[in-house]
Amino acid sequence: MKNKRFAIVLDTRRCIDCKACTVACKAENDVPLGSENYRNWVGEEKLRGQYPNLGQSFTPCQCQHCGNPPCAHVCPTKATEVNQDGIVHVVADKCIGCKYCMTACPYNARYYNEEIEAVDKCTFCTHRVYAGREPACVETCPTKVRVFGDLNDPSSEVSKLLTKYPSRVLKESQGTKPYLIYII
Ligand code: SF4
Ligand code: SF4
Ligand code: SF4
């Protein structure tokens, strides 16, 4: 079977900062309570427009599942792996907790999980995706900010969105080749 190139396309204009994605991710993935433990977050609040026609925009974020992931390059035990479909994940048993990867990640997408004694981060909800379901954050968002899919399939919704709208990635100059792609 042909490999996929999984990605999430986000339309930040839809985000209302309800943080349902953050709650859903924590519940789905047993992320410990506390703001220092997270697989996703909502950041970068910006004001749009001019008074009196002002609006706010938010930037939901998580691991970018980089095509050139510095977190994987620096790990001394090769605990970060990239699967056949581009999903970057941590093999907890191989993690020795040195946190080099946390320092190397330009997106601050990793945290140290004291409960499993390993670094943790977004997995694109691998367990759900390979069971034919959407990631929890995608399914839960009431305004459908995130769309998950396969960029190798031109008929997928993510491919169509990127054909239809201009887009950007975060910190492009870092050369990490992110696969969280934001509609401008
Ligand atoms: Fe924004 Fe959707 Fe997350 Fe709510 S659930 S904060 S609308 S991305
Ligand atoms: Fe690694 Fe950070 Fe890129 Fe995720 S966003 S693949 S943790 S460098
Ligand atoms: Fe969390 Fe899954 Fe969304 Fe990643 S894809 S942020 S693990 S809910």
Overview of the structural elements:
It is a single chain. The chain has a single domain, classed as 2-Layer Sandwich (Alpha-Beta Plaits). Helix content is 20%, strand content 27%. It is built from six helices and ten strands. It has a four-stranded mixed β-sheet, with helices on one face. A two-stranded antiparallel ribbon has the order 2-3. It has a two-stranded antiparallel sheet with strand order 4-5. Strand 4 (80-82) and strand 5 form a beta hairpin. The protein binds iron/sulfur cluster (3 copies).
What are the key terms here?
184 residues, Alpha-Beta Plaits, four-stranded mixed sheet, 10 strands, binds iron/sulfur cluster
How many separate domains?
Answer: 1
Number of strands: 10
Q: How much of the sequence is in beta strands?
A: 25-35%
**Sequence stretches where pLDDT stays below 50 over 5 or more residues:** none
Bound ligands, each once: iron/sulfur cluster
Characterize this entry briefly.
This protein is of the alpha+beta class and 184 residues long. The chain contains six helices and ten strands; from the N terminus they run βαββαββαββααβαββ. The structure holds iron/sulfur cluster (3 copies).
Task: Record the SSE blueprint.
Elements: E1 6-11, H1 20-29, E2 40-50, E3 53-62, H2 70-74, E4 80-82, E5 88-90, H3 100-104, E6 111-113, E7 118-120, H4 126-129, H5 136-140, E8 146-150, H6 157-164, E9 167-168, E10 180-183
Bound molecules: iron/sulfur cluster (3 copies).
